[in-house]
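Same chain as my last thread, 375 residues:
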Amino acid sequence: PGSHSRRPAGIRGMMLPLLPLALLACSAPELQVLSVTELGPIEQNSMIRGRDGGYSGMAFDHSVWLYGDSVLSVENEDGSAWCNNTASWTQDLDASDNLEDFTDWVGSRWVPVEFLPRTEAEAAFNTAHEGDDCLEEPCGARWALWPGAIVEDPDRDRALIFYHLIYGENGEWNFESVGSGIATWSGLDQQPERPVVDADHAQPTLLWHDPTAAFGAAALVEGDSLYAFACEGDWAKRCLLGRAALADALEPTAWTYWDGAGWTQELDQAVGIFDAHTMLSVHYDDAIGRYLALYNRPLDDRVYLRTAEHLEGPWSRDEAVFATEPSHDGAVAYGAMAHPELDRGDGAFVYFSYFRSPADWEGEIQLVEIEIAAP
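reply #2:
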């Protein structure tokens, strides 16, 4: 049987009594779950009250973390305490005692600022619709950017960052994705760029203009190929799989999609290979000799695993292996994803994170260690 322990933040090496009920399954398909240890929240800049997301990957010899909506405790140089995305990175790759020594992407006042840039047209639109006395109706309309998966492309001295372009107006949950693209990033001292890939389109930086095919929910590099997942839908988030040569990732016509029998350039012929969520991770784990997908289901506080010998499948059924700590108001935690750059023991120890809110307008990224083995 597996075991579970909770390790509170700030107490290094102290193990609390085992809580086996929090480990929901002793085994998942094609793997054994030997233990789960909760390590507490990762280090967070004191000027940030909370931020969700938490995609990560190696880039420029650092573990780089990308976050979505971020609430600040101070105003940044734009006079705002809200960012649609932020980023931080660390060279601490030993996650067994949690992570520290993060550096944040900051502005001239050393306050965190948005990492992914808006285009001139998007920035001008936001300015024109800003405030209650805006220049153009509807007031409060805006463009936002949410980061997705990040992959390294060392042959071209860059990292590739998937992102989703979001259009929103005033009102609760009044926003929607209009498509997704890939930003290029050339160094820790530089802001990413969003190359124009379709100059004739109203949104020229997007590779995918279909919001139901928001690629970048997960991504990984295998050899010279870049694979990306898009998981959308009302309740069942059916995941599509696309691939392109890593060197040609910014060419829309370079992408092909799995149709159940082979690869096609017709996106509308792509078929779902498994159900997951809009945020997840997929990576190859040497300890079990299979691909491992990790995620929460929608509105489900449990973390699920499923495996496959090939990215195209067939994928095993998923199994719940961990129950996340709920947010302060009982809301479901979300955003579970693995961080394979932190793996130990050839993948025997996998580290994943999830987001929860400890108080109003506050958030933290919780880190968890899971030990797995082949059955």
